[in-house]
Amino acid sequence: MLRDYRRVLYLDIDCHHGDGVEEAFYSTNRVMTVSFHQYGEGFFPNSGHVNSKGAGIGKNYALNIPLKPGIFDENYHAIFKPVMKMVMQIYNPEVIVLQSGADSSAYDLIGEFNLSSIAHGEAVNFMLAYNLPTILLGGGGYNLKNVAKL
To answer: Least packed by Cβ within 10 Å: which of 42, 72, 76, 116?
Structure first.
């Protein structure tokens, strides 16, 4: 993607912090990573603190939104939509990679969010409304019914 686009947005709404992708692009401004994830004592991978923002020319191109367990649809979108609207306005990406893991759905065996499949769809549709080339990825999810729905 970086051969064809100057600015790539990697958005991760999986329950776990997108630590691997963040680390890969931590020192560049060509890929902005944004992760909405569960955060707290002992929750894997124990990373994604709000102060983890990137380094060098990549400083402020890693954005972490750590959330407490138990968040519901309405509260999630009250955070997600304004944050992503600001990211889109300021970073102005040319392409989006959206990792929409199912482990942030309610009743997951590992993740402790309470999001419905409707909330996932709403997040995806919110990003698709920007009419940019978008790659939608699955990943995560430890409740087979939720994975199938998403």
So the answer is: 42
Segment 61-90, tens digit of pLDDT = 999 999 999 999 999 999 999 999 999 999
Q: What is the edge-to-edge ordering of all strands in the sheet holding 8-12? A: 62-67, 31-38, 8-12, 95-99, 134-137
pTM passes above 0.90: yes
- Domains of the chain in start order, with CATH, are 8-149 (3.40.800.20)
- Comparing CA positions, the residue from 75, 136, 145, 67 lying closest to residue 106 is 145
Q: Which of 90, 95, 89, 82 is nearest to 60 (CA)?
A: 90
Dist CA 41 CA 21 (whole Å): 22
Strands (E) across the chain are located at 8-12, 31-38, 62-67, 95-99, 134-137
Average per-residue pLDDT for the chain: 94
Residue 136: half-sphere exposure toward Cβ, Cα within 13 Å: 12
Predicted pLDDT at 40: 82
Six-digit token string for 33: 């990573």
Q: Which two tokens stand for residue 34?
A: 């944004």
| 107, 144 Cβ separation under 8 angstroms | no
